[in-house]
Design brief:
Blueprint lengths: L7 E4 L6 E6 L3 E6 L6 E5 L4 E3 L4 E3 L6 E3 H12 L11 H11 L10 H17 L4 H12 L4 H9 L1
Antiparallel strand pairs: 1-2, 1-5, 2-3, 3-4, 6-7
InterPro entries: BVU_3817-like_C_sf (IPR049281), BVU_3817_N_sf (IPR049282), DUF5606 (IPR041218), DUF6852 (IPR049280)
Pfam families: DUF5606, DUF6852
């Protein structure tokens, strides 16, 4: 997974996304992912969700797909620019979602969720970013194989 969402959070009642800076005794220090970052302390009364823990409902056997995988699918298919107009209507969001994740559960995934997905994708793409190196390194580390650079270095010796 080339994107790490473990340190990115959404706070209920607050717009945008936040980076988890540091835990405190009474909550968590968060920094907004904006041009001019602002810090806040999310306490127990705030409902905070890490994006790494959020999933999209699907109709297949697994039942859900992690948000990080959905972001990766969007990035692979569309890159930086989503195929949504300036003021997309509900049908346009549904078509976008079906093009990215054809097995999404249209009974349990609402248009408001799709709007959040698009908005969060823009923020994550701009401030967190996707790295192809991380994807390659992660898949090769999982297999325990050597990289092509390591192989060529061994051949040179």
């Amino acid at each position: 997974m080339p994107i790490d969402l473990r340190q990115v959070a959404a706070v209920s009642g607050q717009s945008g996304l936040y980076r988890v800076v540091k835990p405190t005794r009474t909550g968590v220090i968060l920094e907004s992912l904006e041009e001019n970052p602002k810090t806040m302390v999310a306490q127990a009364r705030h409902r905070m969700s890490l994006l790494d823990e959020i999933s999209i409902y699907t109709t297949d056997e697994e039942g859900t797909v992690p948000l990080a995988e959905v972001f990766d699918l969007v990035h692979q298919k569309y890159g930086d620019e989503l195929p949504l107009s300036e003021k997309p209507d509900n049908e346009e969001y549904k078509e976008f979602m079906a093009s990215v994740l054809p097995t999404y559960d249209d009974d349990r995934v609402y248009v408001s969720d799709m709007k959040k997905l698009a908005a969060w994708y823009h923020i994550v793409n701009k401030h967190v970013g996707f790295t192809e190196e991380a994807a390659a390194a992660g898949s090769e580390d999982a297999k325990g194989s050597e990289t092509s650079e390591e192989a060529s270095e061994k051949d040179a010796k």
